[in-house]
Amino acid sequence: MTITTGYSVAEIRSFLVQYDQIPFGQKGKWVDAQPFTRKQLYTWIRALVTGDLDRGLVPRNNDPMTYAARRKKMTEELTSDREKALMKELAVKEAALAAKEKELASQGEEIRRLEETANSLGKAIGLLHSRNVSEPDADEEQSSPKNS
Fold first, then answer.
1. Rounded to an integer, what distance in angstroms lies between the CA atom of residue 91 and that of residue 83?
2. Distance between CA atoms of 8 and 100, rounded to whole angstroms?
3. Is the pLDDT of residue 49 over 50?
4. How far is residue 68's CA from residue 64's CA, in Å, rounded to a whole number?
5. CA–CA dist 46, 67 (Å, integer)
6. What is the value of pTM for the model shown?
7. pLDDT confidence of residue 109
8. 85 vs 120, residue with greater confidence
């Protein structure tokens, strides 16, 4: 089966050049006035883009045959690679954040422990101070018998 049934390659190329030169919005009317169908025209366009028109081959329908479809597929592949790179970068940053949170938690625990220690030392100093204030009388009593 050839792509050029009823038309020569030169005629098909001429139709495609005419179609390409028609302004947007008027192409549908032009195609409807021609002796071929839209499907046939689009098949010819795919054949021209892929280089099959000169060889008379019919493009397969199971593979993207236009540049737009190839560009879309390539964009999807590149996007997925970019997303993978971003996900790796995000995982690294999340691991660093978790390490910093762990460090902050340990520092918070250390601060709490030091505050408790300072509080206990403050109480001990207060007790010693109150004990020293009341003991000077006892010291004086102990020192007076020695003087006698």
1. 12
2. 73
3. yes
4. 9
5. 9
6. 0.39
7. 96
8. 120
Pick the closest to residue 12 from 59, 50, 45, 39 (CA basis).
Answer: 45
**Complete DSSP assignment for the chain:** --TTTTS-HHHHHHHHHHHHHSPTTSHHHHHHHSSS-HHHHHHHHHHHHHT-TTTTPPPPSSS--SHHHHHHHHHHHHHHHHHHHHHHHHHHHHHHHHHHHHHHHHHHHHHHHHHHHHHHHHHHHHHHHHHHHHSHHHHHHHHHHHH-
Cα–chain center distance at 47: 38
The CA-based angle 73-77-81, given to 5 degrees, is 165
| Cα 40 from Cα 4, distance rounded (Å) | 10
Question: CA 104 to CA 61: how far, in whole Å?
Answer: 60
Mean pLDDT over residues 96-111, rounded? 96
Residue type, 147: N
Mean pLDDT is highest, among 50-59, 67-76, 121-130, for: 121-130
What is the C-alpha separation between 94 and 148, in angstroms, rounded?
80
